[in-house]
Design goal:
Strand order of the largest sheet: 1-4-5-6-7-8
CATH class of the largest domain: Alpha Beta
CATH architecture of the largest domain: Alpha-Beta Barrel
Shape: globular
Number of helices: 12
Bound molecules: zinc ion
CATH topology of the largest domain: TIM Barrel
Number of domains: 2
Number of strands: 11
Distance between the termini: 27 Å
CATH superfamily of the largest domain: Metal-dependent hydrolases
C-alpha cells in the first residue's frame, strides 16, 4: 500500500510522507479482531522487518513511521518501534480523548505522554497528533523534548473531543502543526484558523495566535514534521511551492489580500494556482478532477461496505 500511495502522489505531482503504522491491539490488553487483523503485523519486530523492505523512495517522498497510539501498541513493544523509526518522522495519536488517559493510568500508572517518554519516543522527529487532554507535566515533557504537536481541529470538533492547550504547548517548546485526521473537512485554511478560534473560545480572548505563526504552523513546521526541511517557506534553497489565493472572492474581497486574508478569510475554494516543486497546477481543474474521482471511488466503497450508505 505504501508503494501504491507513493506512485499515486507522483502521478498527480504532489509530495508525500507515508507513515507506516504499527497497530497491534484494539485497546490496552485487548487483541485485534475482525477487520483490524488486516493491519496487525503481530508484533513490533515483524512490523519493523516489513517496513525495512520498503524501497527507499525518491526525492519527493519520505517513509516515516507511526505508533498508532498507546492503546494500539503495548508498552513493551514501543521501544522496538522507536528504534526502527530512528532518523525518520515518527507520529503518534496522543490523548485525543479522556478515556485513553484513564485506561493508560489504570493499566500502567502513567499518562500516555509519560509512557512515550519512557520508551524514548519523544523528540524533534516525533509528532504527537491531537495532544488534547494533557497535564502540566505532559506539556512540559512534550515541550522540553521539542516534540511537534499536530492539532486536527475539524476532526476534534466533529468527534466532540475537546480543545488542546496549543498556546501552552508552544510556550513550553513544542512546535505546532495542523492535520485533517479524519477528513471530516478538507481545508487547511480552516484547520489553521480553527486553532486560534478554539483558543478564543477557551480563553475568552482574541489574538492568541498571529496570522504569521499560524501560517508557519501550516507550512514550514508542518513540512518539517513530515521529514521535509527544505519546504514551506519562500527562500533560496527551498523547494518552489506556492499557493496563489484569490484576493477578491466573495470571502476574501475587501480584506486587503495579505497574510491575514489567507489565514482568517480564505477557504480552499479560493485557491487559484498551486506550484509544487516549481510545477504550476490550475487549482479549479484539480478540484473538479479530484471531486469526480473521489465521488466515483467512494460510491464503490459504500456498495461493498457492510453498514451501507449513511
Ligand atoms: Zn486521530
Amino acid at each position: 500500500m505504501a508503494e501504491a500511495l507513493i506512485a499515486a502522489a507522483a502521478e498527480v505531482g504532489i509530495r508525500i510522507t507515508v507513515l507506516d503504522t504499527c497497530y497491534l491491539a484494539a485497546g490496552i490488553g485487548e487483541p485485534t479482531a475482525g477487520v483490524q487483523r488486516r493491519f496487525d503485523d503481530g508484533d513490533a519486530q515483524a512490523w519493523a522487518e516489513r517496513v525495512a523492505t520498503l524501497p527507499e523512495p525518491g526525492d519527493r517522498a519520505r517513509i516515516g513511521a507511526a505508533i498508532h497510539s498507546v492503546r494500539a501498541v503495548p508498552r513493551d513493544q514501543l521501544p522496538t518501534v522507536v528504534a526502527a523509526a530512528s532518523g525518520r518522522p515518527l507520529h503518534v495519536h496522543l490523548s485525543e480523548q479522556v478515556a485513553e488517559n484513564e485506561q493508560c493510568l489504570a493499566a500502567h500508572g502513567h499518562s500516555p505522554t509519560a509512557l512515550l517518554e519512557e520508551a524514548g519516543a519523544l523528540g524533534p522527529d516525533t509528532t504527537a497528533v491531537h495532544a488534547t487532554h494533557l497535564s502540566d507535566h505532559d506539556i512540559e515533557l512534550l515541550g522540553s523534548s521539542g516534540t511537534h504537536v499536530c492539532f486536527c481541529p475539524t476532526t476534534e470538533r466533529d468527534l466532540g473531543d475537546g480543545v488542546g492547550p496549543s498556546r501552552a504547548l508552544w510556550a513550553a517548546g513544542a512546535p505546532l502543526t495542523v492535520g485533517s485526521d479524519s477528513h471530516a473537512v478538507i481545508d487547511p485554511f480552516e484547520e489553521i484558523r480553527a486553532v486560534e478560534m478554539d483558543e478564543r473560545l477557551v480563553s475568552g480572548r482574541r489574538g492568541r495566535w498571529t496570522a504569521t505563526e499560524l501560517m508557519e504552523a501550516g507550512a514550514r513546521i508542518g513540512h518539517a514534521s513530515l521529514g521535509f526541511d527544505d519546504a514551506g517557506s519562500i527562500a533560496v534553497g527551498q523547494r518552489a511551492d506556492i499557493v496563489v489565493v484569490d484576493p477578491a472572492s466573495p470571502r476574501t474581497a475587501g480584506t486587503g489580500g495579505g497574510l491575514g486574508t489567507a489565514v482568517f478569510a480564505a477557504t480552499s475554494a479560493d485557491v487559484r494556482e498551486i506550484w509544487a516543486d516549481g510545477v504550476r497546477h490550475e487549482a479549479q481543474t484539480l478540484r473538479e478532477e479530484a471531486g469526480r474521482a473521489l465521488d466515483e471511488v467512494i460510491a464503490k466503497l459504500w456498495e461493498t461496505s457492510e453498514g451501507g450508505q449513511p
